[in-house]
Structures are given as C-alpha cells and as structure tokens.
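Write out the bound-state structure for guanosine-5'-triphosphate.
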Amino acid sequence: MTPESATIVALATAPAAGAVGILRVSGPAALEVGRGLAPGVPAAPTPRHAYLTSFVDAAGAVLDEGLFLYFQAPRSFTGEDVVELHAHGSPRLLRLLLARALEDARVRPALPGEFTRRAFLHGRIDLTRAEAVADLVAADSEAAVRAAAAGLSGALAERIRALELPLRELHADLEGVLNFPDEAEGADAEAGSRVVALRSAAEALRAEVGRGRLVRQGARVALYGPVNAGKSTLFNRLVGEARALVDDEPGTTRDALEARVEWDGLGVTLYDTAGLREAPGRVEALGIARTKELLAAVDLAVLVLPPGTSRDEAASWTREAGATPVLTVTGKCDVLTAARGSVEDDTNAASAVPSPLGDAASDGMSALPSPAPPRVSGLTGEGVDALRTSVLARLWGGGTPSAVALVSERHADALRRTAEALGRAEEASRVSTLEVLSGEVGLALEALGEVSGTSVSEALLDTLFQRFCIGK
Ligand SMILES: Nc1nc2c(c(=O)[nH]1)N(C=O)[C@@H](CNc1ccc(C(=O)N[C@@H](CCC(=O)O)C(=O)O)cc1)CN2
Ligand SMILES: Nc1nc2c(ncn2[C@@H]2O[C@H](COP(=O)(O)OP(=O)(O)OP(=O)(O)O)[C@@H](O)[C@H]2O)c(=O)[nH]1
Ligand SMILES: [Mg+2]
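---
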C-alpha cells in the first residue's frame, strides 16, 4: 500500500486529561473505520454534521458517548475523507479508541505533521501556510501567535505569489525568445528593467523578513558590564522578581542567569551575567568566560555602567560585546556623582529621552560626540520603563512585527538566494547573453519556489514536517 492510499489515525489533542479528546482519521477508509467505532452513525452521514453517538469496543460494549464528524473529500483539512471522534478527554479511553482504529489493516499511525503534509500535497494549503500551522502551535508569545496567524491566513503566500508570477512570466518570455526566436521576437525587449524591478521587490521582501527568528523564538538580551555596576539589581527589576543574588561585594554573580519575559507581546529572554573585571578569582574567571560566550550569542547586549565611568572606559567595555549590538545605560542613577569627563557628563534635559549610545560606539565612531546614555536605577526603578522601550526599539526598529515577519531561516535563506540570482541576472542583462540571463532568472524562480512549495524535494518536506507533533 503506498503511503498516499494509507488511512492514517492519531489523537488530535494532547495526551493529557482534558474536557474533550479528539481522534482523527484521514484517508479512503476513514468513514468505515470511524463507523466501526461509532456504529450508530448512518452509512452515508451528512458531511460536517455533528452526530451525538456511542463509541464502542470490538464486542459492542459502550466506551463513551461523544460527537462524530465526517468531512467528505475533498472538503476537509487534508483534502481526503476525514472522520473525527470527539470523546471525553480521558487519555486511557483515547488510547483504546486509537488501538481499535489501528486494528483495521488499512490504517496506520500518522507520522508527525502528516495531516498537514497531506493538506499540502493535496493542494489545500501552500507550504508557507503549512509551516504557519507549526509556528502557531509552537508560538510562546503574543507576537508569535499573531505573526503565525497572519502566515496561516496566507499573508506570506500572497507576497511570494506577487513576486513569483511576474518572475515566471519573464522566464517564459526569455525562454521563448531563446527557443523560438521568430515567434517570440521582441519579448525580451524590457527584460533589463523587469529584472531590476523584480530584484528590488525581492530585496524589499527580504528586508522585511529578516527578523523572523526574533518573533518565533523571542529575542535574547544580556545585561553585562563591570562588576558591581548594578546588573543583577536591574535584572531583578526588569524581571519583576528577586531572581538574582545582589550584594555589594564585586563578583557576586558567577553564573549567567536567565528569565523569560514578554514585552509588548514580544518574547524576551533576559540574561544576567558575571561582571567583568581584571584578575578575578578562579570560579569568577569561569563566569567571565561564560559572559563573553553569551555576549556573542545574544541579539542585544545592554552595557550597565556605574556612574562616573569615563568615555574611554565605556568604549572599551563596549568592545567586549564584539559584533553584538550594544545599548549602553548608566546604572545606579539615584546616586549622585561629581566625576568629570564621564559618559554622562553631557546629560541634559534632552537626554531624558533614551537615545542609545551603543550604535555610535560599536560602529567605531566613539570619537564623535554622542548623547549620554540613558540613566537607570535598578534600586528605585527610575528609567526602567524607558530602558524597556529602548530595548524593544533596538530589537524591532520600532513598530510591531509585520505580517510577514514570521519567516524561518529556511525562508530567509531561499529569499536571499532569490535576490542574489536576480542580482546576477541584472548584471547579465547588461553584459552577458540571453542564455545566462534566463539561467539566472530560472535559478531565482527555483529558490523562490522553495518558499511556496512549488519546487521542494521530498527530503525537504521530510525535514519540515518532522518538527510538527504527531496528530498535526
Ligand atoms: N476539530 C477540529 N478542529 C480544528 C481542526 C481540525 O482538523 N479539527 N483544524 C486542523 O488543523 C484546524 C481548522 N482547520 C481546518 C481547515 C480546513 C478545514 C476544511 O474542512 N476545509 C475544507 C472546507 C472549507 C469550507 O467548507 O469552508 C476545504 O478546504 O476544502 C477544516 C479545518 C483547527 N481546528
Ligand atoms: N544606590 C543604588 N545602589 C544599587 C543600585 N543597583 C545596585 N545597587 C547596589 O550595588 C551593589 C551591587 O549590585 P548588584 O546588582 O549585585 O551588581 P552587579 O552588577 O550584579 O554585580 P556583580 O554580579 O558582582 O558583577 C549592591 O549593594 C546593590 O544594592 C542602584 O540602582 N542604586
Ligand atoms: Mg550580579
């Protein structure tokens, strides 16, 4: 029996006690198998009608009373005949029902994501929407839910199609001219400008999707800086509970600590790290090594400086973060300092509006006059809301995640290859032959097709659907 003709079954609900548990069957034998469990249902049930009926064991003894739903192919989630048994949410009962369905030789357990995969194979949904299903299930912040929902409703599919159609037309025109020069004469006249327009559309889409991982997994933000700057106190304040140990002894934090928060719907994993200093003790040195590792991995590093830090010192602390963007703040701002030549020297009324210094410093432009870092106090909470806002602005560049923001590394990579091929096509349209131009346009089309699923391999589908849970 080929996989396509197999009827598959799985629990559609989590294997835990709950109000309702659903057993879902999809494939040609779905109705017969379902009626085997629910013999009270008519032989030709009305599709999409909820029948209240008994579910029975092999001997006909009643196991539960629940709802029976029949979706007739192709009007179902998978595009095949689908039967759902909505039973009471007893894991043990559902296992009995599942085992009974599997007694039929035409039925086998569904693989992870197989229902969704069949929906894709039967053309019910394209790949971006299939992936959005998995994203929605995995979403752990409001932003991730909203972005996945937009993906599910076809927002990304729409954008891809808007690029794919003209690209396909251009490719067809070019191939026409190459293969039937007489009939298709002149179809390549505007090729150069069409490539330019398509390339800029591809680049625009690419720019928009770059932050998919931020929404999907949340952003990672680490507090770092010299020992005793007030990092742990600020961390506790940002997290809203006393998670980290605080002490006036420098070198209190040894191991990085993490906490998950949700700010404006965006998931943020916040790290408190071991303070940096020269000549630490042995254990502390291990903590400092870990801080440096972590700094390389996060999306944003928040440098917490004690009041009175000089500009040179600030610049050198900034360099500790390497390539990671830095947002600098002056901590313990409730303490008055009279130090001269410090980073907060030019603090004035205007600098009450947080303006990240990190950019300038990490761009190697620290010689230019830059605004004073925003001031915070973990102790009093002053400036903490403004810091949160600056962090979000730095991660997002302001605004809320766009509908197409929830894009996987896979999508981003395919879009990058699309744009690159179009870049080479643009070059070819100026300096090379029509063959080369058409070849690059073909490559762009192929890369783009990996997003929508018009050109994907079985192997890629296997990998994609493996991240789904069983029953999805
Ligand atoms: N009980 C239950 N709830 C569920 C699902 C399910 O399979 N079963 N879903 C599963 O993930 C989601 C809903 N997704 C669905 C998508 C399409 C169709 C469907 O029957 N589509 C047909 C008919 C459309 C219509 O009549 O408007 C089609 O596309 O042709 C059903 C569910 C979430 N809730
Ligand atoms: N006045 C004032 N004191 C603070 C503030 N934040 C921290 N402190 C004090 O400064 C000392 C060090 O604070 P921590 O939060 O442990 O500093 P840290 O940067 O985590 O230090 P290490 O883990 O040792 O690197 C403690 O005595 C805190 O009470 C603040 O905003 N204002
Ligand atoms: Mg600490």
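---
The pocket of guanosine-5'-triphosphate (ligand 2) is lined by residues 227-233, 246-248, 250-253, 275, 331-332, 334-335, 377-379 (CB under 6 Å).
Confidence is low (pLDDT under 50) at residues 346-369.
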